[in-house]
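Quick one, probably user error.
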């Protein structure tokens, strides 16, 4: 008999990973599935970063346990990066390097949230936010931005959602799953709501900062009075095509950084030593490869926007960052091909996987039941073919 904890029984499976697993099952059967479900760059880690890792191995200096919060020179490089690129003044002691930005977020939640505390989540949101909150026994409070406002919740909505139990506000910009980018003016308005409230903190997830087509990236921690109230999350996966290296980091008030270091010391200890050396190379080198990848994402964005608009009944905006579209496909709910009736976004994603052999992720997992997430981190050839399959398959529904 199984005796699982309530914690694991109540935890939702990651929708993105679940859909990726279903796509793999189809591929293992020999079916040609185009996977647009995972937020994973299709580029290889740039060669100079690979060389940094090889040099670290060859030096034989980095085979022992690193400090839990990361090597000192790497934390200095991250501190310099925050100052240089974001205008954020975090000292190396305010940096904690973790096994991916996901662990960074969990560390912060476990450090700040007590049972019953409320965490405002600007929605649509990355699927793991609510899981991390619930792991800390907090209560997610979703504040939803609609398609008409590029999926961005407003400062007025945030203010209305704050109660005496609100402990944390979390959001991403550029956003996963919508690609939305909060402007400096929008973040300033949210900061004005948060700044004078004692015991209220902001987690700003900026993992997609380099994949930004809006012309400017703004960090809420730079707003007056916000540095001591903001935990800035970042990492190497998206902008540097380093998903498998598993490197994330935070800049935070010292007492929060110490708490995260304490938790991490009991859970995983430090991030992989060689991955840290590769990260040091990436952060102290020219951003040319990152900019080239972003330019390619920009071309794909234009293509997918055009192809989505060619599909009857699809409503979409032009996302300003990341590598996702979050189209509203609710016009197909209630329709049937004569055998199968589509009732919601989850059923539509399964239908498209089974009939178009394209994997997407239901928007229900991200806080919007009318939408699906489509990642355009794929080749132009695959994107054209995938959108053709989707269009042809949706045309069978009436």
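Nope, works fine. Designed sequence:
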């Amino acid at each position: 008999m199984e005796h699982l904890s309530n914690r694991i029984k109540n935890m939702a499976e990651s929708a993105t990973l679940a859909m990726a697993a279903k796509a793999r099952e189809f591929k293992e059967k020999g079916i040609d599935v185009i996977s647009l479900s995972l937020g994973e760059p299709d580029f290889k880690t740039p060669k100079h970063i690979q060389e940094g890792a090889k040099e670290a191995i060859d030096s034989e200096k980095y085979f022992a346990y690193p400090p839990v919060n990361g090597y000192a020179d790497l934390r200095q490089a991250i501190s310099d990066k925050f100052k240089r690129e974001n205008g954020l003044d975090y000292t190396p002691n305010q940096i904690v390097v973790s096994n991916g930005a996901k662990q960074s977020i969990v560390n912060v939640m476990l450090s700040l949230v007590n049972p019953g505390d409320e965490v405002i989540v600007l929605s649509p949101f990355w699927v793991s936010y609510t899981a991390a909150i619930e792991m800390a026994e907090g209560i997610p409070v979703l504040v939803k931005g609609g398609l008409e406002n590029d999926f961005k919740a407003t400062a007025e909505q945030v203010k209305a959602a704050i109660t005496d139990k609100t402990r944390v506000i979390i959001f991403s910009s550029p956003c996963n799953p919508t690609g939305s980018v909060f402007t400096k003016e929008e973040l300033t308005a949210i900061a004005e709501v948060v700044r004078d409230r004692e015991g209220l903190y902001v987690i700003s997830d900026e993992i997609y900062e380099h994949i930004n087509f809006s012309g400017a990236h703004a960090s809420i921690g730079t707003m007056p009075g916000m540095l001591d109230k903001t935990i800035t999350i970042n990492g190497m996966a998206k902008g540097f095509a380093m998903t498998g290296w598993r490197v994330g980091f935070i800049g935070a008030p010292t007492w929060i950084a110490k708490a995260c270091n304490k938790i991490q010391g009991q859970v995983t200890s430090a991030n992989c030593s060689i991955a840290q050396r590769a990260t040091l190379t990436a952060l102290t080198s020219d951003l040319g490869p990152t900019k080239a990848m972003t330019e390619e994402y920009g071309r794909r964005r234009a293509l997918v926007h055009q192809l989505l608009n060619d599909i009857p009944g699809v409503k979409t905006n032009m996302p300003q960052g990341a590598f996702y579209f979050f189209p509203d496909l609710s016009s197909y709910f209630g329709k049937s091909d004569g055998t199968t009736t589509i009732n919601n976004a989850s059923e539509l994603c399964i239908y498209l996987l089974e009939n178009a052999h394209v994997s997407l992720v239901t928007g229900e997992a991200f806080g919007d039941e009318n939408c699906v997430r489509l990642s355009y981190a794929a080749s132009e050839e695959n994107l054209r073919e995938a959108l053709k399959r989707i269009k042809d398959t949706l045309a069978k529904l009436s």
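Residues 95 and 251 are 5 Å apart (CA to CA).
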